[in-house]
Records
---
Amino acid sequence: MGMGYAACRATVLDEKYAETFPEWCRLASWLGDDIEDFAYYISIDTEPDPEFSDWTQEDFTKADNMFEEFREAFAKRHPGLAVCLGYHDRSQDGDRYDDIDGHYLEVVGFWVVSPEGEKIKEHVTDCGFVQFG
């Protein structure tokens, strides 16, 4: 099977809106620059390997639990919608024209524009990027 680029889409929640959730603020503050690493691990559905990372199992579990608190708060405020953390490395896996580079918060269930989606549509952007593989 040949290698090539595949088109990807993500409905991305802007960080300013995410900052209206104290749960997101606590997580982002605790992670600091490590948010990129955490988003990467979450996006590939794995835990960090201590051989290649400074992350401990306790750190990962704490960050994962804090993110789950944010997901629950988001779902409570916006029933029918969910938020996921994703990661895309434009230079390694994509293209210079991609809208996403690094971590992003994806809103799931948005484009079946629900009454809850209508309430936040000005805070959400539909982004495109390519993935090499």
---
Amino acid sequence: MSDSNKQLHGNIIALVGAVILSLGLFLPWVTLGKLAVDAFIKTPDHAYLLLALAGLSVLLSIWGILKKSDFGLVYILIALIIGVLQYLVYYRLTEHLESNKVFGRVGQIGPGFWVTCAGAFFLLIAALSMVQLKRKK
């Protein structure tokens, strides 16, 4: 496989990761039985920053696909920022959920949080493949 094909595949993986990341923001981040709360209600500041980073990743990956550009280091930076934000949100959510019970039940972290983490993981995989590609040259 040529370098330009590997670069194209890296940008496609980054695009998939950014879309998954964006979708995770709109899924439930906290669940309690049939009740669900998304990221924009529970952690609005983090959610808007994550949405901005996901949007930037989508734009960069589309630009990379069309112009055959490599944004591996930028993707790594974005994935690291998202990772730190997700860690902070996870800590805050678990702390909040453990201390608050509703009708004797404790809420759980919902699928939206984990889908967002999966999107960031895809972004990191794409970035590492692109950086590794640069190193081999």
